[in-house]
């Protein structure tokens, strides 16, 4: 670089003045950009001028070196002119233009022949850092939590998803988690799918619950890319931890594993016990262990630091190998109005223990999602799964067996009952599963617990579908016909406030009737979300009130108009004139007429009433006190007074 460049630079600084803020792009003599354009072709010189070392952390050029001499670049006009260097219109474009936006670089190949710029190819190349918050769920990496029983996997799962979904209970001699559950983890700016698995015991007998849970964990390990191996640091390196480590090397040889020492909050006392535990954890052979505490959140920053480089490298490889464009890989956060009936459907499968709820869930999903077996009370957690049916997103929730909570029940079973009740209140439609074999033997459809479930679902305003399972166990056709005839009649007798509750007879084990169940669920959900116009309701009201037999015509309430104020469930308001209100019989009559005339059977309907005060006979209401006569004006010496 010649010294003439320095003299020209000093001349430009003298022209604009030291310490004055000047916009060179608004100047009539825009000499600095022209000066930069003349020097733009010297790539070596410009590259040495824009060195990374010449910029401090706040983006202000501090010191540049020219021919071994440091010069200070402090003037704002010089900074702005050099910053606008890459955006000047006179600079000739290169053969490949690149730009970066949110971690992606779009490379566009151009053809400059015959002065026509033709785009040949558009290729999106993603770079670090990756914005995980905008990546679609199906592209996110999967991290599974593994370890022996009772090391805190469910507690860490709740910490990562920031909700208390998985059951957490200290049971040294039992296993709380039996089915794996998944969720979207939020760890700083990282987003990934996290799976909570059951505790592994390699010495479990064949066919036992522990052996079946280990087989399910092995199947989901094949679909995971990363794993967090948890150990209980307070108990030291257990021999079962070494067996689990050997099991992981056998069933998941290519998975990236991070060792986490859980429950380490009590070892931060400066005695060196944590360092000794870490040295012992090195025997597992997966590098440096991380000290965390799932209960208190200790060590989450260290876990973030260990997972971030691995997740970013995986995410970059996935995004760059995708054939879709940038819009296909990233989700659109723009809010759009969607009808209530098109929103994701929340379906809760409830019932007594061992009636086939988990088998029904697996049949609907067409996979072994939850653990099934002849043991009663096998499901403990409320497992939530997502699937598509006829273009509609449906969230299935398999709940534990519904039992009345008593004072004698303690431990995980008591927590399962509470979780099942919460799942029922969050659902849109409730599928009550009955046992056809028990119905045929007991000659009654619903027992006390099942009646409680149905009534609570109706009181909460949820749609209800009754599913009679295990129809394959009824060998005689006469018994099947009797069950199919008796169940709807008894349900109508037990729950008289809702008419037309759909009943579906299936065999989940053989896969018969699952399509009929989903069709009834969707039909009930659409009714639950239905909205009726006020004009249509008022026309209906005139017909209904004319055909109703009133005992005393003088005491007949005057319903001015009828309107729907909300859906999910449908709620209506009847505006009644005078002091006479609708009786309970009249409200039941209106509900039954709504269900018959508008096909709203099987869902709860709510009707409220409001009184509309009548106007006084002499017309001395507040609105009638005002007339159209102009007020007289009285003139005075000082001002005009209006009376």
TrEMBL record:
Entries under Pfam families matching the protein: KH_dom-like, MMR_HSR1
Bias (Basic and acidic residues) ranges: 630-643
Domain G stretches: 142-263, 347-470
InterPro entries linked: GTP-bd, GTPase_Der, KH_dom-like, KH_dom-like_a/b, P-loop_NTPase, Small_GTP-bd
Region (Disordered): 614-643
Domain GTPase Der C-terminal KH-domain-like: 531-610
Entry keywords, A to Z: GTP-binding, Hydrolase, Nucleotide-binding, Repeat, Ribosome biogenesis
Transmembrane segments: none
GO process terms (BP): ribosome biogenesis
One Gene Ontology molecular-function label: hydrolase activity
Classification via CDD domains: EngA2
Source superkingdom: Eukaryota
Comp. bias regions, Polar residues: 618-628
Family: Belongs to the TRAFAC class TrmE-Era-EngA-EngB-Septin-like GTPase superfamily. EngA (Der) GTPase family.
Official protein name in the record: GTPase Der
Organism: Rosa chinensis (China rose)
């Amino acid at each position: 670089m010649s010294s003439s460049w320095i003299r020209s630079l000093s001349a430009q600084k003298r022209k604009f003045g030291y310490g004055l803020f000047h916009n060179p792009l608004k100047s009539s003599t825009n000499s600095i950009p022209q000066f930069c354009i003349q020097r733009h072709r010297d790539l070596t010189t410009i590259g040495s001028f824009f060195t990374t070392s010449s910029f401090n952390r706040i983006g202000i050029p501090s010191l540049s070196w020219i021919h071994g001499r440091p010069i200070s670049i402090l003037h704002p006009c010089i900074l702005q002119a050099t910053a606008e260097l890459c955006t000047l219109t006179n600079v000739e474009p290169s053969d490949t233009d690149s730009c970066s936006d949110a971690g992606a670089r779009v490379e566009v190949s151009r053809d400059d022949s015959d002065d026509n710029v033709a785009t040949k190819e558009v290729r999106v190349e993603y770079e670090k850092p990756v914005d995980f918050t905008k990546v679609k769920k199906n592209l996110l990496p999967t991290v599974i939590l593994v370890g022996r029983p009772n090391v805190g996997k469910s507690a860490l799962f709740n910490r990562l998803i920031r909700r208390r979904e998985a059951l957490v209970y200290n049971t040294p001699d039992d296993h709380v988690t039996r089915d794996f559950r998944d969720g979207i983890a939020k760890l700083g700016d990282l987003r990934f799918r996290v799976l909570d698995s059951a505790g592994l015991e390699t010495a479990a007998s064949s066919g036992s619950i522990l052996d079946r849970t280990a087989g399910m964990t092995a199947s989901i390990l094949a679909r995971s890319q990363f794993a967090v191996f948890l150990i209980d640091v307070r108990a030291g390196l257990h021999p079962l931890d070494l067996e689990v480590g050997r099991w992981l090397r056998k069933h998941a040889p290519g998975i990236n594993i991070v060792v986490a020492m859980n429950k380490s909050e009590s070892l931060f006392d400066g005695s060196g016990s944590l360092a000794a535990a870490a040295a012992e954890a090195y025997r597992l052979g997966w590098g440096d262990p991380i000290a965390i505490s799932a209960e208190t959140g200790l060590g989450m920053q260290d876990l973030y630091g260990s997972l971030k480089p691995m997740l970013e490298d995986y995410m970059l490889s996935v995004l760059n190998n995708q054939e879709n464009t940038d819009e296909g890989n990233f989700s659109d956060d723009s809010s759009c109005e969607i009808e209530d009936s098109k929103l994701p459907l929340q379906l809760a499968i409830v019932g007594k223990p061992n009636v086939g709820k988990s088998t029904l869930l697996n049949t609907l999903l067409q996979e072994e999602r939850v653990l099934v077996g002849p043991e009663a009370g096998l499901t403990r957690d409320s497992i939530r799964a997502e699937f598509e049916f006829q273009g509609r997103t449906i969230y299935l929730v398999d709940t534990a067996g519904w039992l009345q909570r008593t004072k004698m029940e303690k431990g995980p079973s008591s927590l399962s009952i509470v979780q099942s009740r919460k799942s029922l209140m969050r659902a849109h439609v409730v599928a009550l599963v009955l046992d056809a074999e028990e119905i045929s033997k007991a000659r009654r459809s619903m027992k006390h617990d099942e009646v409680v479930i149905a009534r609570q679902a109706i009181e909460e305003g949820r749609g209800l579908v009754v599913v009679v399972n295990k129809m394959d166990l009824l060998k005689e056709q006469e018994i099947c016909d009797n069950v199919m005839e008796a169940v709807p009649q008894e349900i109508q007798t037990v729950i008289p406030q809702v008419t037309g509750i759909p009943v579906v007879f299936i065999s989940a084990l053989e896969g018969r009737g699952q399509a009929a169940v989903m069709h009834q669920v969707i039909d009930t959900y659409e009714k639950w979300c239905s909205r009726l116009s006020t004009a249509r309701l008022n026309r209906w009201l005139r017909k209904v009130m004319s055909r109703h037999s009133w005992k005393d015509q003088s005491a007949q309430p005057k319903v001015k108009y009828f309107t729907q104020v909300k859906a999910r469930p449908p709620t209506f308001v009847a505006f009644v004139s005078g002091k006479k209100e609708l009786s309970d019989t009249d409200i039941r009559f209106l509900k039954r007429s709504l269900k018959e005339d508008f096909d709203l059977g099987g869902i709860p309907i709510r009707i409220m009433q409001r009184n509309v005060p009548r106007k006084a006979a002499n017309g001395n209401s507040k609105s009638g006190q005002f007339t159209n006569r102009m007020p007289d004006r009285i003139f005075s010496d000082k001002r005009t007074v209006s009376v």
